[in-house]
Every structure is written in structure tokens, then in C-alpha cells.
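User: Here's a structure from my thesis project, written as C-alpha cells. My advisor, Dr. K., wants to see whether a designed sequence matches the one we expressed. Can you design one independently, without my sequence as a hint?
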């Protein structure tokens, strides 16, 4: 199966929609998914990726050790080693397909700096009042 590295640009913003919830391997039994190599519990985090004026919702699988302390909905994060894996399967006679996303960890990211609001432009009457006040003071 193809594993495609995904470029995480510095200008991209990622905001969590959910905190980490354990990934369910089998919905009928409630079995929790674990990493095949390490046995570590896997979590799913819903993240909104904003890039180049577009937004997409990604469900990202994260190992338990990759969840930062303080992860909650609405927190800015930075994915580390983001990988996309296309998948397809036939379920009940219908083809299902999509892309699975996985990271080694999520890092908390500082919120982007907000631009300071512009000072309101002075009206003609305010400018005239200011000029008159300066003239009187002189």
C-alpha cells in the first residue's frame, strides 16, 4: 500500500476539532486499535487544515505517545511526519475508498499573530477641530 508523505507548510494552520479519542478497531466488540509494531494504543484526532484559502477536515491517527498534554478541541497543532495512505475495500457489495492520515505526533502550535486593528481615519470635522486646537495652543 502506498504511503505518501504530506508537506506541512509553515503557512498552513491546523486546528483540532476534537481531542484524542481511542480508535476503534472493531465496532461490534469495541476492541481498541493498537500499533502493529509497538502495541501502543492509537487515537483519532479530527483536525481542520487551512491552506491557501481552503479548509479540509482530516481524521488523523496518532499513537498515544504522540498526543501532547493539553490537547482539546480548538487548539492549534502542528502534525509531525504526516503520511497519507489511500485505501479501498468492498463492504456489503459497495466500494468504499478514502485516504487515511497518520502522524508520529502532534505538537501544540502557537496561534498565529493577529494584525493590529487599523486606527480609524479622522473625519474632516475632527481634522479641523485638531488644527484649531493646535493654532490656539501656539
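Assistant: Designed independently from the structure alone:
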Amino acid at each position: 500500500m502506498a504511503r505518501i508523505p504530506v508537506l506541512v507548510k509553515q503557512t498552513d494552520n491546523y486546528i483540532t476539532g476534537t481531542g484524542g479519542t481511542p480508535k476503534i478497531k472493531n465496532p461490534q466488540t469495541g476492541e481498541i486499535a493498537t500499533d502493529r509494531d509497538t502495541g501502543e494504543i492509537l487515537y483519532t484526532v479530527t483536525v481542520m487544515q487551512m491552506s491557501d484559502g481552503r479548509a479540509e477536515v482530516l481524521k488523523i491517527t496518532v499513537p498515544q505517545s504522540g498526543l501532547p498534554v493539553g490537547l482539546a478541541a480548538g487548539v492549534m497543532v502542528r502534525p509531525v511526519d504526516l503520511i497519507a495512505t489511500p485505501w479501498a475495500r468492498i463492504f456489503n457489495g459497495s466500494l468504499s475508498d478514502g485516504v487515511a492520515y497518520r502522524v508520529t505526533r502532534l505538537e501544540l502550535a502557537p496561534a498565529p499573530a493577529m494584525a493590529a486593528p487599523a486606527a480609524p481615519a479622522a473625519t474632516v470635522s475632527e481634522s479641523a477641530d485638531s488644527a484649531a486646537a493646535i493654532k490656539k495652543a501656539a
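When you compare it with your expressed construct, this may help: The chain is about 10% helix and 45% strand.
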